[in-house]
Design goal:
39% helix
Length: 134
């Protein structure tokens, strides 16, 4: 499995890649066209997260269920789904515009599948860091 380094400091934030695409960056690029302020806020939130760890404010970062978390742009509409790995590592699966209650479970399932694939590849020693994104 390929991973992109989103930010690296005290914490390392990674994004899962699927073959030649990175869902997180593709989602953020698409959402950034409609919600440029929120997209910029999420990138600043990544910087904060890498330097200081997860935000303690439950309105910005919270566990949804079963080890899947969401990171929000402050009072914004973009949500990034992620999970933790050992050694202060955060792995982001994808981003969406604030999901409705009906579709939230679908987004959580998508993040769970990414975590399952990540852990399987990690146990086989097949995680590859592709590049660091500016």
């Amino acid at each position: 499995m390929k991973l992109l380094i989103v930010r690296r400091d005290v914490w390392t934030i990674l994004a899962v890649c699927e073959e030649e695409r990175c869902p997180l960056y593709q989602d953020l690029e698409e959402l950034g066209k409609r919600l440029p302020v929120d997209s910029a806020r999420i990138m600043r939130r990544f910087e904060y997260f890498a330097a200081n760890g997860p935000p303690r404010n439950k309105e910005l970062c919270r566990e949804l269920e079963d080890g899947i978390f969401e990171l929000k742009a402050q009072k914004g509409l973009i949500r990034v789904f992620f999970f933790y790995d050992e050694g202060r590592v955060v792995v982001c699966s994808h981003a969406v515009q604030k999901p409705k209650k009906k579709t939230l479970q679908t987004q959580i399932s998508r993040a769970r599948r990414a975590r399952k694939a990540y852990l399987a590849e990690k146990s086989r020693g097949q995680l590859v860091i592709v590049k660091e994104v500016p």
